[in-house]
Amino acid sequence: GFSKHQNGDGHSTAVTRLITAPSACKDIAVMLHESTTQERAYNRDMFLRLVRSVRYLLCRGLALRGNWQPDKGLEDNNLLDLLKFSCEGVDQPDVEEWLRRKYNKFTSPKIVNEILQLFGQETTRRVIKKIKDAKCDYFSIMADETSDVSRKEQVVICLRWLDDDLTPHEDY
């Protein structure tokens, strides 16, 4: 039994592969590391693309979301439309493939809300720094509230301050 197996074609083919495999193939640890590094770089690139798109919409005062019901196939919003538009007419299969993903594409409302909060915090820091750098002694805070068409309350906060030349500035 065993000697017959050892002298068979299947066994000699397997032994030959075992001997030549290390020189023909990369080490599995190296392959996993390279794959992970490539995936991280890809995800970082897609995430930065998403952040730039959010920033673009924020700078123009446009809504990011519309009808968000991914379980029903409804993901109608400006953010995804902008991401799709950014790869139209340009051969960017990586972006198109990323947008087709069901998961792990960073576009869920929770993640987008976190990005929005980070932008809000950075904006607040910059405004406070401008006011401190101007050594402003006088400033006022104004707030106004209204309901939008969906009956959600919207609040606007405005800081008005004077610089060293007594020039008024307003930051929203």
Quick check: average pLDDT? 81
Oligomeric organization of the protein chains: single chain
Distance between termini?
85 Å
Helix percentage: 55-70%
Number of helices: 6
State the total count of DSSP E strands: 5
Low-pLDDT stretches are none
Structure notes:
It is a single chain. The protein is built from six helices and five strands. It has helices at residues 2-6, 9-24, 28-59, 78-86, 93-100, 109-133, and strands at residues 67-69, 74-76, 139-147, 153-162, 168-171. The strands form two sheets. It has a three-stranded antiparallel beta sheet with strand order 3-4-5, with no helix packed on it. A two-stranded antiparallel ribbon has the order 1-2. Helix 3 (28-59) packs across helix 4. The longest helix is centred in the N-terminal third of the chain and has 32 residues, at 28-59.
For this entry, give a set of tags.
alpha+beta, 3-stranded antiparallel beta sheet, 6 helices, 5 strands, 55% helix
Briefly say what this structure is.
With 172 residues, this protein is α+β, with helices and mostly antiparallel strands. It has six helices and five strands; from the N terminus they run αααββαααβββ.
Give the SSE layout.
Elements: H1 2-6, H2 9-24, H3 28-59, E1 67-69, E2 74-76, H4 78-86, H5 93-100, H6 109-133, E3 139-147, E4 153-162, E5 168-171
Antiparallel strand pairs: 1-2, 3-4, 4-5
